[in-house]
Design goal:
Chains A, B: Pfam families: PALP. Chains A, B: Its EC number is 5.1.1.-. Two copies of one chain form a homodimer. By secondary structure, chain A is an alpha/beta fold. The first copy, chain A, has two domains: 8-54 and 153-304, Rossmann fold (3-Layer(aba) Sandwich), CATH 3.40.50; 56-146, Rossmann fold. Chain A has helices spanning 8-18, 31-37, 55-65, 68-72, 82-94, 108-116, 128-142, 153-169, 184-196, 212-219, 241-250, 259-273, 283-290, 292-295; strands spanning 27-28, 40-45, 75-78, 98-103, 120-124, 145-146, 175-179, 201-207, 253-257, 299-304. The interface between A and B is medium-sized, with 21 and 21 residues.
Chain lengths: 316, 316
């Protein structure tokens, strides 16, 4: 457990600790998308990360912070998405049990993905309360350590390592854009830039249909999540106190984009970059396309967060 | 024009000549696909190449072989696929005209892609004879230089550079697999391995539904293309005398795969590697999956040839 806002040293320690667990992902550019956007964009390909998403960094960071005795009891979380897979694979790599709480109506493909890593899937009612109750039960019964999908300083330090790698590989970035959901990556990115290159403008991209981050950033307190549907389902999480505390301090702006803008940006990345990315992942590029004047000729870093998408249900 | 089977020096000259025109594409690996296949595979990502396919190498190689006077008259070819785009972009980068002959019933998206590079599209009847007649007319009228999609030593030298880069980046490869269509890449790969690492087993992968290469390889003479349909439409070309002459000599084996095997391999690469590839491009990996005993623990190089696929018409 890390019980403070990660320092630069905490993030560097984390990078060391997870080095053998995660992939050092490549940074790709695309002349065609630079032309289309008028900017110069460096895409950090966390869709190539283990389990297909940056979440592997945060989960392995939190898991490796535990001492041997705590690890042996296992890792637990609630998630039917990338974080569940990340915790499951972290546990597998550490040789300890994993308990993943999922709504009973989650698609079996998601349950099977987690089971494929040797984790135990525990079904719960498909409500926030049902999920929390079941997770509490699991933690009490097993002694497993709960890893939050984002509201955990160890997780935030892990996500920050993606941005540190990007800053190291590409000197002179002027803007850094990440998607904003629960805020783990956003907070990690803000810290990494603050410590290593404070002149960078750090921007969060959010679906208009899940604009709680945008509203919170402006009001200065955590606003509730709207109930609207967005194709960027990975970003439908409320902020946490730990992530928002950092975001409030170190993020420069939050921009929202429409569903159509997300799908258009996603399609361009598929067609021109030949990369499979999930909708949430397209949000930062959608932000750039939305405001060509603002980003004209700027040197921009974007974290491509993940590529786990159902190929039989594409929006185009 | 190159009027002999490319020597190693010819290929190296070509690499120099096209260096500023093409991308040096990355080599990616995927732990998950290694597990699935039992082999150790290094994927050379020509789907990231300019115009989204390795064809850019061959076209730019042939184009840059011309002297200034010849260049000024322009480049011509017949192709509604990647080669047409490659010739169009080469001409654009050289600042000369391009004339691309296409069947009148070719999808407008393909015509527009070529027009987008500033080339002139000339429509023809949708038959082999109609195409040839129109091309001949264009060449006579304009004096443009015809660049064959594959049956040209300059083109073959260009395709060989992809394999040279892969051999330079990954030492110790034991097997090299490329798709086999008209044979340009296959011939280039065979030459590159022959010159630089002759111990490598060079294998062509072909759709069962377009197995003229397989039959030709076995009979020792160019066999006609069958008329069956394959999803790997990029491989529905007859061999040429120049490509087959090299293939007969330096390729070790040709393996055919079914439509189902191609689609399965394609889907795995999309899902696990997060790469958009076209069906033709999946054929070499389908070969590996078909014969697990043969390829077990082998260190294999595969050229991912291209990523130009209609996202609204996927086979899964």
């Amino acid at each position: 457990m890390l019980d403070r806002i990660p320092t630069l040293e905490d993030i560097q320690d984390c990078a060391q600790r997870i080095q053998s667990i995660i992939h050092h992902t490549p940074v790709l550019t695309c002349g065609n998308l630079d032309e289309v956007s008028g900017a110069q964009i460096f895409f950090k390909c966390e869709n190539f990360q283990k389990i297909g998403a940056f979440k592997m960094r945060g989960a392995s960071s939190a898991g490796t912070l535990l001492n041997d005795e705590a690890r042996q009891k296992g890792l637990a979380t609630h998630s039917s998405g990338n974080h569940g897979q990340a915790v499951a694979l972290t546990a597998k790599m550490l040789g300890v049990p994993a308990y993943i709480v999922m709504p009973e109506n989650a698609p079996s493909v998601k349950k099977n993905a987690v089971k494929g890593y040797g984790a135990q899937v525990i079904e719960c009612e498909s409500t926030a309360a049902g999920r929390q109750n079941m997770l509490d039960k699991v933690v009490v019964n097993t002694g497993a350590h709960f890893i939050s999908p984002y509201n955990d300083y160890g997780v935030i330090a892990g996500q920050a390592t993606a941005v540190v790698e990007l800053l190291e590989e590409v000197p002179g970035l002027e803007i850094m854009i990440t998607p904003l959901g629960g805020g783990g990556l956003m907070a990690g990115a803000a810290l990494a830039c603050h410590y290593l290159q404070p002149s960078i403008e750090v921007i969060g991209g959010e679906p208009k249909n899940a604009d709680d981050g945008y509203r919170s950033f402006r009001s200065g307190k955590i606003e509730p999540l709207a109930t609207e549907v967005t194709i960027a389902d990975g970003l439908r999480s409320p902020l946490g106190d730990k992530t928002f505390g950092i975001i409030k301090e170190y993020v420069n702006d939050v921009v929202t984009v429409t569903e159509e803008e997300i799908i258009h940006a996603m399609r361009l990345i598929w067609e021109r970059m030949k990369l499979v990315i999930e909708p949430s992942c397209a949000v930062p590029f959608a932000v750039v396309l939305q405001q060509p004047e603002r980003f004209k000729d700027k040197k921009i870093g974007i974290i491509l967060t993940g590529g786990n998408v159902d190929l039989t249900r594409l929006p185009f």
